[in-house]
Design brief:
SH3 type barrels, 2 domains, 12-stranded mixed beta sheet, 4 helices, 10% helix, Fumarylacetoacetase-like_C, metal-binding
């Protein structure tokens, strides 16, 4: 099931996306409005709206985003970094989240902003100290993410809070795919139609099971929290006016434009 969060006529709801699009747009897709929220048992209302008549929002509003750095060896190498011996986690704040079609606002303190295409995991229920054999039970599904990074700031500041946590630095979407094997999916990023990143989730150093076990040893994850699983090689610069698109096999495409602040 593809679960989207959307607004229509000033109201926000979740819905199940149905149908097959015949082109790059949303033609042929409809959304069946969900009764309730997708983090518990729910029913479809049967009320269906063409998807091009609604505004897609970020599929969740997470309490926290736990991101993993250097989880692809080739990406670590391209920036001259060693691969960590254990998962290297950092946080992005909830205020960094934007949805499909929203604008990435170029931060005033940076002169070098990069795209980072990533598979994102959406947590289904409150969980802590999750054993490996129960990891699938705490996952609602998967979506596309862009871990937008002020690279110059990341390199000069010991903490990554500003470099990776500025407003609009965490695009998510276009929806959550619940029925997916994430072990070997193609992950790509294009900028203005030019291919920049092309990798596969099979190249991750730490698997999703590894990451959730590691993170929940330390902290409780809440329904709607998001895990970013790292980016493949090929990261590169974004500039105001660019359009960046992250595509993940079996999910779809997340597209955002870059604009100047003010």
């Amino acid at each position: 099931m593809r679960i989207a969060r959307f607004s229509i006529d000033g109201n926000v709801a979740f819905g199940a996306v149905e149908g097959d699009s015949t082109g790059p747009g949303l033609d042929g897709l409809v959304i069946d409005i969900i009764k309730g929220v997708p983090f518990a048992d729910f029913e479809l209302s049967g009320t269906k709206v063409p998807l091009d008549k609604v505004r897609l929002l970020s599929p969740v509003l997470p309490n926290k985003i736990v991101a993993i750095g250097r989880n692809y060896a080739a990406h670590a190498a391209e920036l001259g970094n060693e691969v960590p011996t254990a998962p290297w986690a950092f946080f992005k704040p909830s205020t960094s989240v934007i949805g499909p079609g929203d604008s990435i606002v170029y931060p005033s303190f940076s002169r070098e902003v990069h795209h980072e295409a990533e598979l994102a995991v959406v947590i289904k229920r409150l969980c802590r100290e999750v054993p490996r054999e129960r990891v699938k039970d705490v996952i609602l599904g998967y979506t596309c993410a862009n871990d937008v990074t002020a690279r110059d700031t990341q390199q000069t500041e010991k903490q990554w809070a500003r470099a990776k946590g500025f407003d609009s630095s965490c695009p998510l979407g276009p929806w959550i795919e619940t029925d997916l094997d994430p072990s070997d999916l193609a992950v790509t990023a294009t900028v203005n139609g030019e291919l920049r990143q092309a990798g596969r989730t099979a190249q991750m150093i730490n698997s999703i099971e590894d990451l959730i076990v590691n993170i929940t040893e330390a902290m409780t994850l809440l329904p709607g929290d998001v895990l970013l699983t790292g980016t493949p090689a090929g990261v590169g610069p974004l500039h105001p006016g660019d359009e960046v698109a992250v595509t993940i096999e079996g999910i779809g495409t997340l597209t955002n434009k870059v604009i100047s602040r003010g």
